[in-house]
Design brief:
By secondary structure, the chain is an all-alpha fold. It has eight helices and no strands. The radius of gyration is 18 Å and the shape is globular.
């Protein structure tokens, strides 16, 4: 019970750090003249952003506590995981909710980078071992080997996206897209394919430093990677849509993302 309470307390602090960094990032972005998406019910958004930060802390903290890497390496790993996953969602949102994102994408990405730095730093400080002898696996591969593996990883996500996304669209989400709920739109197939390939590439790069650092068995690595992509790449950004999108749509999307992102993470870990 003491261990669970400690993890929860640290995760609450991580969520608080994320919100503070998010607010400060928004101020900085606005100060340099970049636009952010319109914030309706700003207090509610901050509350749900805090919840997202807590989820990230609960998900990444126990893994960070057992990862054999220096704190500098840990910070690099978690910034990559958090920011590139959130960036991939923002890029997708640019195509699927143009009325919401629009020309605010650069400002949103910068804000999320600063917020991700704050969250990753807190996860590292609170959870990572203070003294660690890094035992990072050495991977000797040619440039061509890395290229095809990264492309295959991106296409893995695209494949699962279309399979599980199509099932969810037919069963649940079609009416919401047709009525443009929450600013949603259905772009042409070519645009959708472009958006998801870009997102797949970002997702593959997001977990690459983690995969090259963790040193777990292949099976455990696959499960951990799938879990990270589901939690950080799925649940965290989904919490920020509470109050924007209907609850049924959010629930259906959570189930879709569970199958989609977890399966992607398992195969990406095997490929990379």
């Amino acid at each position: 019970m003491k261990t669970i309470f400690t993890i929860l307390l640290k995760s609450l602090l991580a969520g608080l750090a994320y919100v503070i960094a998010l607010v400060l990032g928004g101020i900085l972005v606005s100060a340099i003249g970049l636009r952010l998406p319109e914030a309706k019910d700003a207090v509610d958004k901050l509350v749900w952003s805090f919840a997202g930060g807590v989820i990230a802390g609960l998900s990444l903290g126990p893994i960070a506590a057992r990862m054999p890497a220096t704190r500098t390496r840990q910070l690099m790993v978690w910034v990559s995981v958090i920011f590139l996953n959130l960036a991939s969602v923002a890029v997708e949102g640019y195509f699927f909710a143009p009325a919401v994102i629009g020309d605010a994408l650069p400002g949103l990405l910068m804000q999320q980078l600063l917020a991700s730095l704050g969250l990753a730093w807190m996860v590292t400080v609170l959870f990572a071992p203070k003294e660690t002898i890094a035992t990072i696996p050495v991977t000797n591969r040619s440039g061509f080997s890395w290229i095809w593996r990264l492309l295959a990883s991106a296409l893995t996500y695209v494949s699962f996206y279309f399979v599980f996304g199509a099932i969810n669209y037919i069963l649940v989400t079609k009416p919401y897209y047709e009525t443009h709920a929450g600013g949603l739109a259905v772009p042409p197939v070519t645009v959708t394919l472009t958006a998801e390939i870009l997102r797949g590439v970002l997702i593959a790069f997001s977990v690459l430093p983690f995969i090259l650092t963790i040193g777990s068995s292949r099976r455990r690595l696959a499960v951990q990677t799938g879990f990270i992509l589901f939690a950080v790449g799925g649940l965290v950004p989904l919490t920020m849509q509470i109050g924007v999108l209907p609850l049924l749509l959010l629930a259906a999307s959570a189930v879709e993302i569970c199958f989609q992102n977890f399966s992607t993470g398992v195969l990406i870990a095997r490929i990379l």
